[in-house]
Amino acid sequence: MKLELRGITKRFGTLIANDHIDLVVQPGEIHCLLGENGAGKSTLMNVLYGLYRADEGFILLDDEVQNFQGPGDAMRAGIGMVHQHFMLIPVFTVAENVMLGHESTKAGGRLDVESARARVREISDRFGFDVDPDALVEDLPVGVQQRVEIIKALSRDARVLVFDEPTAVLTPQETDELMLIMRQLKEAGTSIVFITHKLREVREVADRITVIRLGKVIGEASPDATNAELAELMVGRAVELTVHKDAPTLGDRALVVDDLTVIDAKNQVLVSGVSFDVRAGEIIAIAGVQGNGQTELTQALVGLEQRVTGSITLNGTELVGSSVRGILDAGVGFVPEDRKEDGLVGGMTIAENLVLDRTDGPPFVRGGGLRLGYIAEFAEEKFREFDVRGRGIDTPVGTLSGGNQQKVVLARELSRDLSLLVAAQPTRGVDVGSIEFIHKRIVETRDAGIPVIVVSTELDEVTSLADRIIVMYRGRIVGIVPGDTPRGVLGLMMAGEVPSEGVAA
Question: What range(s) does the ABC transporter domain occupy (predicted)?
Answer without folding.
Answer: 3-239, 255-499
